[in-house]
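Quick question, first post here. What does this chain look like in 3D?
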Amino acid sequence: MFLVEGTRKSIYSYGPIYFNLESDPVTYEEAIKSQDSAFWKETIQEEMDSIMGNKTWKVVDLPPGSKPIGCKWIFKKKMKVDGTIDKFKARLVAKGFTYAPVARIASIRMLIALASIHKFVIHQMNVKTTFLNGELVEEVYMKQLEGFVIKGQEDKVCKLTKSLYWLKQAPKQWHQKFDQVVLANGYIINESEKCIYSKFQNGKGVKICLYVDNMLIFGTSINEVEETKAFLSKNFDMKDLGEADVIL
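> Answer (accepted):
Ran it through. Tokens below.
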């Protein structure tokens, strides 16, 4: 396979087969009109199913004196290490300013070094719709999103009941909920690195390293890792990425 980079398109070759790969769309309209529209529409619907299933908002009249925030779609093709497409990803985000607690790169390197010395198993998991796990306490109103404006209710807005990506409250709410769940189940937080959690007994156990919605699980054995995965999957909507080979 070879890859030729262009300003807007890349050209892939697999033996006698050639095809153009468009760059990621910037807007909703661009996504549904692209040559990959079928894939984008599918992942947009998956995102909406997650949001609506989580009861993230309800459509209401905007209260007097309130101002709704905007929202937008973010589109991204996730690539594999070999350069092929892994999946199409659509994410609905609020137009806000945010930050997210993450483990320091130095801490991740240290854990990998310790894992190498002590022959730990390293697996990786991803939390689906991470920021939708947090509960909102403030009243936040958002404009209806492009492509999903309710006919006959165009003047109404979405009152958020759960956190949404890029909402400034979202990362804090997510991190607080993760803290509550793992600490209530016997994990201990690292006081100098708030995104690392440990649970050991009789020399066996795991360390969880959290980086927004990705986590590395370092275990003394595969059994310890699998038990941790089962615990996390019971409490959150998780994706098991298996043994870690690439860490972003």
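Residues 31 and 43 are 11 Å apart (CA to CA).
The chain has a mean pLDDT of 83.
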